Amino acid sequence: xxxxxxxxAHGAGHAPHAEPNxxxxxxWSTDHKIIALQYMFTGMLMALIGGFMAYVFRMxxxxxxxxxxxxxxxxxxxxxxxxxxxxSIMIFWVAMPVLLAGFGNFLIPLMxxxxxxxxxxxxxxxxxxxxxxxxxxxxxxxxPGGGFGGAWTAYPPLSSTAKYNLTPMGxxxxxxxxxxxxxxxxxxxxxxxxxxxxxxAPGMKAFDVPLVVWMIVVASLLFMASVGPLIAGAVMLLxxxxxxxxxxxxxxxxxxxxxxxxxxxxxxxxxYVVLLPAMGIVAEIMTVFARKKMFAYxxxxxxxxxxxxxxxxxxxxxxxxxxxxxxxxNVFTVTTVLISIPIAEMCFLYIxxxxxxxIRFTTPMLWALAFMAEFLIGGxxxxxxxxxxxxxxxxxxxxxxxxxxxxxxPIAIIGTIAGLTFWxxxxxxRYMNETWGKIHxxxxxxxxxxxxxxxxxxxxxGEHRRIYDYxxxxxxxxxxxxxxxxxxTVSLVVMLLFQFIFIWNFIYSMWKGKRAGNNPWNANTLxxxxxxxxxxxxxxxxxxxxxxxGPYEYAAPGRETDFWPQNEKG
Amino acid sequence: xxxxxIATQRASMNIPTGRLAVWWLLMSEIVIFGGVLVSYLMHxxxxxxxxxxxxxxxxxxxxxxxxxxxTSSLSAVLAHQAASRGNGKRxxxxxxxxVLGGLVFLTVKAFEWTHEIQEGFTxxxxxxxxxxYTAAGVHAVHVIAGxxxxxxxxxxxxxxxxxxxxxxxxxxxxxxxIVWIFLFPLLYIAK
Amino acid sequence: xxxxLPSLSTFSGDIxxxxxxxxxxxxxxxxxxxxxxxxxxxxxxxxxxxxxxxITGKEPHLKRWINIPHTLILVCxxxxxxxxxxxxxxxxxxxPPPDDTIRVVGQQWTWxxxxxxxxxxxxxxxxxxxxxxxxxxxxxxxHFLLESKDVLHSFFVPVFRLKQDAIPGRTITGWFKATxxxxxxxxxxxxxxxxxxxxxxxxxxxxxEQHVAWVQQHSVVADAGATMPSDSSAAVSAGATx
Lengths: 570, 191, 242
Ligand code: HEA
Ligand code: HEA
Ligand code: CUA
Ligand SMILES: [Cu+2]
Known about the structure:
The structure holds three protein chains of three kinds. Chain A has helices at 3-11, 22-27, 32-62, 76-112, 120-140, 162-165, 168-198, 211-242, 256-290, 297-310, 326-338, 340-354, 363-386, 388-394, 398-428, 434-460, 479-512, and strands at 67-68, 72-73. By secondary structure, chain A is mainly alpha-helical. The two termini of chain A are 47 Å apart. The mean pLDDT of chain B is 90. Bound molecules: heme-A (2 copies), dinuclear copper ion and copper (II) ion. One heme-A sits between chains A (153, 271, 274-275, 317-318, 336, 339-340, 343-344, 347, 376, 379-380, 382-383, 385-386, 391, 394-396, 400, 403-404, 407-408, 411) and C (25-26, 29-30, 33, 73, 76-77).
């Protein structure tokens, strides 16, 4: 501790803690809110990197061989490394840290009415391991041989054998980074689950917990129950790469398909791991701005649990044509198509929540509504892929790429921005600018559809994935297909330009925005009962909240105001 | 942080926070070992010839180690009993005994592996050996981690602090023990 | 036929039909959901003096609006599953007796094809190897034996709606029967390293007469009828050209 801080603490009489210095406060803090911001800012930085990669490889697809501004010539190996790391970054270093760790850390203690996570130091360690994993991943792009280019699914033998992938260092660092990231989220997950289970405010029963907390907890459970085999698998892959074992090597009694099972046994639950927090965020925002109680709150929770359970039995739908026993496909097509039942129910309940509401189209609400509308496109196109007979054709075409961007983009970008704009006043005590927010909204949503709708079309015409130059294939080089690729790329550039508005609005509002009170949206949940931003410890020790009712008591009959905070007596 | 976190002291589920966390930790560990073991079993069933490789493992060393681990679990239980009676000193001593068990286990393991490697059975010698070293190696890492945590817990238990941790580290140790009880027949006995 | 993509195998029509069926079944629900959504947004927009209602979701007259569609979706799901499984069984789980057999070998980063030659039997001395171009006859049922020499590849013929991954160390058997002549792309649909983006080939679907002529022109006429039990993988690598 510096002398200066010491003197200050002394001057303040008997302050319990000395004001920690800048480094201790922002980089060594155990405060869940600081850790949440660390995760969020790291994730947003990674989003910019992942978005930049998308820009570079989309330019190469649209204008093969061009010198991409701010990058240069894209060689085939650079192309592969770009898509691989784009996919990995967007899922593991953007969606996971921002949605699960960022919002999870920020919201769980605040919404459960406690002062911090149950294991604050484990929480700090979790972020540090995560940061290390991000650094290793980014460093892997610059090592001799270049970054790993075997796709985010890293199928062996390509990923396990240096003489095939030609990136011995890059691929090992990629596996190591992913494994460390998993370790970080295991620590985070234990914290989330135990905090939400055990550290709730007095009076807060399981069904008084806001949906977003429920969903983040179920997501953490899914993660922890599915990632283990892949951690083991990643260790085995590292050993195949570096110690000469043959777990995935058919010449030595191994089996390349084993990795696919381990990967997708995790990979499919993983998509719901990121979906659920976004759904939760949307639930909070929709109820607040429709001034409505959640339609059938308990049923929503049951659908979440049903989705989670089912998600463990669908993984082989990624492997229909991978050489598994064809009879297995019939089992997995049944489970896959049936997962539409809980998810359709969930979507319907959300939409029903709007019925009888008094809907205010603020920026956060616009993002939340856009999430619903766009996610439905991603969801229904999943059914095309889940129908095994059709997936023979669709597998690894751009139809799949379009499908998962219509799910991931609403989740990782739309849902995230919805949450950020909604809780921004709580995080920083100020509003973001509404006008700029709406300009950014339309400037993102419209180009977004123009980026990915063409991909459905191209996929239906046989365009396959992970190809740096389609002019090599006569049937795919026809002019109208190339024009669609250009439409997609140009829309991406337009959309990226609009992101500068968001970044500026965000940074400007942090210091210069209009001041917001404790409860700017007249919401019910506990985080709105403390100051904005909340102090270390969230509430005064003598005045920790006590809960009397559920989180969505809007427009309750016989009350003056149309909201009824969870901690209000009576 | 000098002040205690309020969240850590709450127990909405009426289960102490530490114990709840250990259970969840074990859940994620079970699926890690589950992944290794299911992979191994699927391959073992598909490759009859692995049985010949497995014939070279030293069943007696494995059996002795099983015995050592079971005994150390017993002392962990006794440590928990002592801790719940508030006898931190005795709990600490019993934990040291448990650590000693782990040490014996690792020593036997080290001799076994040296011998096998000298015989030419390395991790590269075939599918069975790859799984043998990986599964046992991952397990050994858990043994070492358990021993380190136990030393740390014993240190504070000695001063009658944080006695609830004695039970938690014990649960973890039983888990490590149970994993071995799966590994032993699969790697040593099935020939 | 899916948009602009020609439909040239006996099962491509089934797959297209399945896609159309799924489009109708999910499309109806998709549009119904979106229309409902936007209508509610407009109908219940905030207006002065109108308060929102207190609805818990237990009201039977409102729950109906969820439960009935939900049951109907389950019915749609069952229809989709049955249709999907039927197509799947036809393409992947049945193996009609072959008129001819070919071997398809993937390696970084080229396709090699082994045609059975004049005698119609694979692995004999009159086999014809080509790299990058596969010759087949229209109207004949082919079995293909799919192999890989290094990493995973995926044999993808869009006009047939046919796709199958190739796995090193295994031989996977599948089938197809072309219905029209023409020349189209063969793609590799599984990432296989730096050259994945150039790994393609062409399929030439010829009329039976043309095909016989092509085979006779390229088949090395060996001593009649004497089949040589040759080491197939050696033969393929000898035949592969880069
Ligand atoms: C968060 C992301 C996310 C989400 C939520 C989903 C959701 C779903 N996904 Fe998707 N998927 C991915 C991310 C996601 N997916 C990714 C990343 C890949 C590719 C990985 C790679 O190869 O790189 C992929 C690939 C993928 C495949 C493999 C394709 C292939 O490579 O061959 C399949 C196949 O079954 C599939 C199916 C589904 C299904 C059935 C759902 C369901 O959960 C959707 C359910 C929702 C609805 C159905 C909408 C709501 C319902 C209605 C409006 C009612 C009407 C519906 C009916 C009548 C059925 N997905
Ligand atoms: C969360 C997941 C996610 C997201 C958001 C995106 C976003 C985008 N993706 Fe990506 N993509 C994947 C996951 C994702 N992708 C995966 C898993 C693959 C498969 C990889 C593989 O094959 O191995 C893939 C592959 C992939 C391909 C196929 C490449 C190929 O097969 O050859 C293409 C092609 O166009 C593409 C394009 C894009 C584009 C244009 C965007 C744009 O939407 C990007 C726009 C960027 C931004 C919008 C960021 C802006 C940043 C801010 C505004 C800061 C604030 C940040 C937050 C609020 C979070 N992606
Ligand atoms: Cu071969 Cu891609
Ligand atoms: Cu999936």
